[in-house]
Amino acid sequence: MHTYRYTSHRGYTHLEKKPHSMLLAFLFLSLPSCLFVFFFFETFIQYTAARGNRLLFEFIGEPQAISELVIRFFGKKITLPSFIYPVTSPLLLPFFVTHLSALIVVYYGKMHHLLKIWLSLLLAICLYTALFFIVFRLQFNLSILYYSEFFMRTESWNLFVTPILLSFALIALPIKNNIKSVFVFFITLFLFFLNATKYFATVFLLSYISSLYIPVFIFLFGPLLDYFIIVALFGYFTRYGCSNHPSEELPV
Amino acid sequence: MTFAFLVFCKVFTLFTCGVIFLYIIRHYIFTHARFLKKQRITYEDLRDSHLPSVSIMIPMHNEEGVVRNIFEILTHEDFSDIQVEIIAINDHSSDKTEAIVNEYVKKYPTLITPIHRYNRKNRGKPCGLNEALEIAKGEVCIIFDADYLPPKGIVQNLVTAFLDPETGAVMGRVIPVNGNKNFLTQIINIERSSGYQVDQQARYHLGLLPQYGGTVGGFRTDLIREFGGFDPLILAEDTDLTYKLFTRGWKVVYTNRCECHEEAVETWPIRGKQIQRWARGHNGVMFHQLFSLFKSPYLNTIQKFEGTLLLMVYFVPFLLLVSLPISLTLCLMETPELYHFTYFSLLLMVYYGFGNFAPFFQSTAALILDRDYKKTSLLALSLTSFTFSVYYASKGFIQAFFDVFSKKVPTWAKTERFRGNS
Predict the structure, then answer these.
(1) How many CB contacts within 8 angstroms connect chain A with chain B?
(2) A223 and B347: CB-CB below 8 Å?
(3) How far apart are CA B369 and CA B35, in angstroms?
(4) Which of B46, B171, B181, B332 could link B217 by a cystine bridge, Cβ 3.0 to 4.6 Å?
């Protein structure tokens, strides 16, 4: 015997009195939190920059590290012709070659189909960055300072947008409004701590590897990670809310 | 030169952001309409004693593992209130499909009519359906893929929609029968749920353009004959028919209650091929039908706009794929600004990409309506299929683009079945 799934013919009217007030509330709630994060990071970056932290301004690995390596191997500094510099760079060339070989191995190798596509994408971003560095060396401006600025602005924007998007997403769901509010507040708070942790962790990692990884880091640990976590929590929340705190259905 | 290039990058990224933003708004409207608006009365409630006669068509190609199931279900169905014939279209099968079809034709000679297509110049579903249309006696044709498991009464329920003289085609809901088998089938289950329970239903109830999906659906036989049958150059004959109907003033009815089980693909490479084929077909329709959509006197501005968005669904992944290196170039060449488009693009790209063509809130809404709360925990993991879909849908778009110039009949890449193998 075939049984039909639940299909509502009259919609699913369950809203409590003023659903849009929740949206407005979080719009105003998200604004100060966003500004707070913005100024927090801004102050931190300006303070560190004022102290002359070389880590923030230099393109890590190039060209200071090259000079140090060359001096260590040859005992003196060797000046290469500028037009062939990026290609002959002791750091860039291995970077390019290893990532290109990795891309070929990943593309033709045997591994899970999804993993293959994801790794190919990440390697392609690395290769594109390296290629860009070779071709447009003078315009290349990636540094930790750039990363910090980029990260800070993205995340503060993100912190501002997320509560609004979530509020919109939650309006129609048959869960009690107070529970929805707690969830949005919790997510906003969580994002704040997550952003700070992410920032320090990624800057720490980047300081040990090359700045050429900055685009990959932005792609992987930027909004992508945020939304992965937000949607995961959203999924668990709706499951919990619908099971334990459903709003009452009202006739249309 | 550099300045012009940067301007181009910004304009392109801004355009992509704008398009994606439109889709997000569209899906918000659908989700809210599905939950909060009063839904239209469905045609099943108008069941009449006199229903139009039906030709059930089952296109098949190497279906030995699944074809018995659909024959068993349909031959044991009570068709006392409706005149029915079954047309089994065996299209160049190299396995035992032909023998199985003949076995059932022997058992039910008055009910089943076979078409064995071998050594034909053109292969594929549209060509097979065209041949079946030549011999179909029913006023209405109902299509089921060979792996489908139609429940009792579905044919009558679908046909009831044709009591409305304005109805040109009808579409039912598809539910994977193996929805809990592995991670991929679970993700497909969420997508299907979202696509039918919210997307199609909202489009129908808002008076927009619900899509005829090519299976678990039907159309008026004479109408399609009048159109000259299905175009063999188009892989997505279903989408093509949807637009032909709407632009000529006909209606497509979506009936959410007519649920039919299908077999979802169980491996990622086959899923990739399936998405690629859909994207190729859908984009082919976009190239063919976009102009006639704008010209149609039967559609209002909102319907035309929605129709355009629907046609562009498989073009957007390509747009995203192109905008990724462009936004990366911006990121590498420019100092960050507060309203820098790069991160905005990334943010929206990721946001939209979740759940493969359906944002997470729409999928959640569908799962809640289906009372399938457990699957909401899987929503975040649908991110894994994001790059996958973008890659294969973009490949499909590029193929469709070259199809326009080559004018060759595209090869029909059939989706492999799993039921018979396990």
Answers:
(1) 172
(2) yes
(3) 9
(4) B171
Dihedral pair phi/psi, residue B181, rounded to 5°? -70, -50
Range A45-69 average pLDDT: 52
pTM across the whole model = 0.84
Of residues B272, B354, B378, nearest to A227 (C-beta): B354
Task: List pLDDT tens digits, range A96-140.
Answer: 777 778 878 777 877 788 888 888 888 888 888 878 777 776 666
**Among B17, B85, B28, B94, which residue's Cα sits nearest to residue B60?**
B94
Looking at chain A from residue 133 to 162, which residues have their Cβ under 8 Å from any Cβ of chain B?
136, 139-142, 146, 149-150, 153-154, 157-158, 161
Q: Which sign, positive or negative, has the C-alpha torsion A227, A228, A231, A237? A: negative
pLDDT digits (tens, 9 = 90+) for A5-43: 334 444 444 444 455 556 666 666 666 666 666 666 666
What is the per-residue DSSP string for B126-154?
HHHHHHHHHH--SSEEEE--TT-BPPTTH
Q: In what order do the strands lie in the sheet with B54-60?
A: B112-117, B84-91, B54-60, B140-143, B217-220, B167-176, B251-262
C-alpha closest to that of A142 among A59, A54, A45, A53: A59
**8 A C-beta contact, residue A163 and residue A184:** yes
Residue B166: exposed, middle, or buried by beta-carbon count in 10 A (0-12, 13-18, 19+)? exposed
Name, in order, each residue with C-beta under 8 angstroms of B279's C-beta and a sequence gap of 6 or more: B314, B317, B392, B393, B394, B395, B396, B397, B400
Task: Indicate yes or no: CB of A11 within 8 angstroms of CB of B38.
Answer: yes
Instruction: Judge: A146–B335 Cβ closer than 8 Å, yes or no.
Output: yes
**Comparing C-alpha atoms, which of A218, A8, A96 is closest to residue B327?**
A218
Q: Which residues are within 8 A (CB) of A136 and not within 5 positions of it... i.e. 6 or more apart?
A: B332, B333
How far from chain centre, in Å, is Cα B131? Answer: 22
Name the amino acid, one letter, at A95. F
Nearest C-alpha in B relative to A214: B332
User: What tokens were used for B164?
Assistant: 């409305």
Helix (H) or strand (E) holding B262: strand B251-262
Cα–Cα dist A82/A102, whole Å: 28
User: If you average pLDDT over residues B173-183, what whole number do you get?
Assistant: 87
Tokens 């089980």 belong to B261
